[in-house]
Amino acid sequence: MNFIDTPTQKLFNANVFTTQAMQRRLPKNIYKSVLKTIKTGSKLEAGVADVVATAMKDWALEKGATHYSHVFYPLTGLTAEKHDSFFAPDGDGGAIAEFSGASLIQGEPDGSSFPTGGIRATFEARGYTIWDVTSPAYILENPNGTTLCIPTAFVSWTGEALDKKTPVLRSMQALNTQAQRILALFGKTDGALVSSTAGPEQEYFLIDKNFFFARPDLVTAGRTLFGAASSKGQEFDDHYFGAIPERVLAFMFEVERELFKLGIPVKTRHNEVAPGQYEIAPIFESANIATDHQQLMMITLKRVAAKYGMACLLAEKPFAGINGSGKHVNWSLGSSSQGNLLDPGATPHDNAQFMLFCGAVIRAVHLHQGLLRAVVASAGNDHRLGANEAPPAIISIFLGDQLTDIFEQIKKGGAKKSIPGGSLTVGVDVLPPLAKDAGDRNRTSPFAFTGNRFEFRAVGSNQSIAGPLVAMNTIVAESLDYCATRLEKDAKGDPNKLNAALQKLLAEIIKEHGAVVFNGDGYTEEWHKEAKKRGLLNLKTTPEALPVLRTTAVKQLFRKYKVLSTRELESRYETYLEQYCKSVAVETNLVIEMSHTMIFPAAVRYQNELASTCANLKAVGYKFDTDTLDKITALIKELQDSTAALERTVAESHATSLLAEAKHSCDVIVPAVLKVREAADKLEGLVADDLWPLPSYQEMLFIK
Ligand code: ADP
Ligand code: MG
After folding, report:
1. Is the CB of 542 under 6 A from ligand 1?
2. Between 610 and which of 203, 435, 601, 629 could a Cys-Cys bridge form, CB atoms 3.0 to 4.6 Å apart?
3. Residues 295, 152: contact at Cβ < 8 Å?
4. Whole-angstrom Cα distance, residue 45 to residue 49?
5. Mutate to test the pocket of ligand 1, among 204, 286, 288, 330 (most ligand atoms within 8 A of CB)
6. Same structural domain, 584 and 605
7. Full domain range(s) for residue 484
8. Does any domain span residue 567?
9. How confident is the model over 422-459, as pLDDT tens digits?
């Protein structure tokens, strides 16, 4: 089945229990009730669930489903499912398909092995999955059958969030509440739900499966822990936007077909900067659905790659010296009646509103830069942030010259400097049309305004986008709350006073928080110095960034907007710190093992070959030099010493707390790992190719 035989229109949403499918199958009053829950977030009415469950089951059985699964998103960042059969013995030797409203609404997976950071001891292992009515159910296909998947939130029996979805839903509610207050100031009181929207661009690598399986580091850690630079790197930039190789294109077609069936609106595909690197991006959706779809996208990329004899690498930095992969999370907010609230409007009134939303984001990012850094912290992303190919670890905002100029004028009182069309007063003048391209081109900024949305580029390619979205939604909700409170007080409900109050508020915001705006090159040394002068944080590593989650400001923020309780926040802090330590430990063990069992034996074999050649030459009276043998011998010693040193750093670790352990991993173990790699990579450049046990960068990156 391909797109020639089956056109896209027939595929899109084919495997989704959409609202249209519900409308067709449900009694009118039930359908209306479900729709109300989806649109407004109201509670599901009693009696509705059973009817929906039956309709959903019938739909799924027609699609060949035998099982249903509550899908949830634990703190590992992965997707978890537990499958249950629809069928039960009917007592007469047959089987009937059953699916009650209760089974639809709530499930009880044995979640005892999911990380909870201490919220739930294993003896009270009960966690519940609860149907998220706002994210549609879908069918997952397998060559041998299909499964009905129901997106759910995962909570403990005490009601605490154990997953990534719950806080996304809560933060969206908080954002809606505060955005409504702002809209009301502008006379917009239709109450249409304001949602945050997200469009995540996903970067990934593809390599041939045979190379993948020949590398224990790729199989176990998802990235190469050894590997000398290939003689041809990415210096020619000939891969970017180049023609897509045939096998890769076939893979992309199939990925897109599978995603279309799941209702995921994939839009763009292209080669990325590094050889073997590609990007896929969907059209934006409501943040909650975009998050679920992003998880499905990662799973689909991996699954389909295998079918085409390839492995899809989602690690942030699979190859040293070659560009890493990120996930650019495009973020905005809007409603069905107001459209995108970060789109500059065509009237002064709309533009005043736009400037306010924009100002609120600037304030939010400045106040909570540490939090934004913390939510993208992971062992994998540490290798990317700060290297000169990804945004630096300093969080700043790129606004573009034009918008920056406008804010500068507001700061100076509104009329000092002229822009095309004269000077500008918020709420009186129309903004000049903002040039979009300028915003798009700055690739060094971690947080860029790109015409009608902000693009958070520090997110790692392997990460769930839930954390970044929760942070964005909540910090902007807080900022909108602050702005609404100020304007409600200063304008006292008088629309004539609103403009003056707004002008004053924006001037203040840009005075106090304008330090976070930076339009220049984020890679330069000068920026690092300048950022320090401006008081911006530069949290280079995960152990530096994660403790932000425990600061009073962050605890209060999440508590106030009922997104995460302090206990829930603490549990996340612990879980992520633990994950960091575990990732480093896994890689360390691998490096030690590969050094002993693969690199060292190859080097010694070659040394032996050289040594016997020397002995033979000597025996027949030839003159010879031992340059290579000397080098190999020295490098073998370097490999052994550095491996022994690494083993000592692991043994030495007597950390008394998780944070101390993470710091030890970061400051002592990771550099020691790199020393082993250094010796091994030098050996790779000397040892005979037929003796080297690992596929080379050259092979992995250029054989398509
Ligand atoms: P670029 O590579 O120039 O950043 P892409 O087209 O690859 O652009 O990706 C842009 C992403 O931004 C797409 O996923 C798109 O749907 C998303 N986007 C556009 N408008 C919005 C919006 N209002 N809210 C969230 N995401 C948006
Ligand atoms: Mg982009």
Report:
1. no
2. 629
3. no
4. 8
5. 330
6. yes
7. 164-195+336-562
8. no
9. 556 777 777 766 666 544 567 789 999 998 999 999 99
